[in-house]
Amino acid sequence: MSKNKKAVVVTAATLATTVFLSGCGLFGGEEKKKIDPPQDVTFMEDGEALDENVSTETSEDGKEAVETSNQTELYLIDKNGYVVSQTMGLPKKEGVAQQALEYLVANGPVEQMLPNGFRAVLPADTQMTVNIKDGTATVDFSKEFATYKKEDEKKILQAVTWTLTQFDTVNEVKLQMNGTPLEAMPVGGTPIGGELSRADGINVDNSDVVDITNTKAVTVYYIGGEEGAYYYVPVTKRVSNDVKDNITAIVNELVEGPAYASNLLSDFESGVKLLEAPKVEDGKVTLNFNESIYGSFEEKMVSEHLLNSLVLSLTEQNGVESVALTVNGKADVLTESGEKLAEPVTRPEKVNTGSF
């Protein structure tokens, strides 16, 4: 990643960012900002949303118009072909997991909600049922499912898996078509091999891997989109087994940045380094960086995009719930909005809730 491409993000973040970080989590704090933090979501055992988490929109004449559920992550395809979550408020409906998949269907209800450059992933007219039991969501698709384009096959697997596994009741996904379990995808033959999970990766990038047998997978979040409409893109990369802990491996990948031809960006300068091994205790990771973490800011501040990418990436790891930063061993780190990063930063309930 060239430093010039990085500078584009830093400048945009300095002038136009509306993201606010605090110990309360990403994208929102105690005070309301331009992007409000999503409300807590609670799910019953069968994956249904509880009624108290429902809001009602009101039309101009004062009558109730549409009841919307809590924000739902829909994994769609952006203009560069990446599978990316976009958080949207969906109408109140029983069966929130199935509803989320219904909003992945082309020419369906999602069409009026799609952000610029995004498209749905499932073929038009596809219908499905979703049954959740013991952490596994079994999806039975209609015959229309088999009409997708071959080049979308892996993207469909990733979009369906990541959309469903956002719910607390779903850890794995099984696919069927017309009641018959799918051992492989019907168009290109991509093996499924039983259950799908986030461990299978998303937007997989093996471009720099010579010997995949001596590597392990980690998922990092880079920056996609354009000024005024940036969003975070998860990318699964292979890293050397020689790097013993995944946290250090993730930091290294963020510093290295995405492939130059990827159309993705990073706010990490090439000189950023960890001064000691990460410390993990009770779900909190503490990282001690050198001063290069401040990037191009004249004052000693850390960019919001850098913090967001770091926290999203690290909290994909099992057992990591929050991230604390120090620089040269000192905890007096400021965000670019001038707020002191006094508390560990937690992952947001939902990702990519709006433009910034």
UniProtKB/TrEMBL annotation:
Listed name of the protein: Germination (Cortex hydrolysis) and sporulation protein germ
Pfam families referenced in this protein's UniProt entry, alphabetically: Germane (PF10646)
Coiled coil region boundaries: none
Keywords: Signal
Signal peptide: 1-21
InterPro entries tied to this protein: GerMN (IPR019606)
Annotated GerMN domain residues: 97-186, 247-336
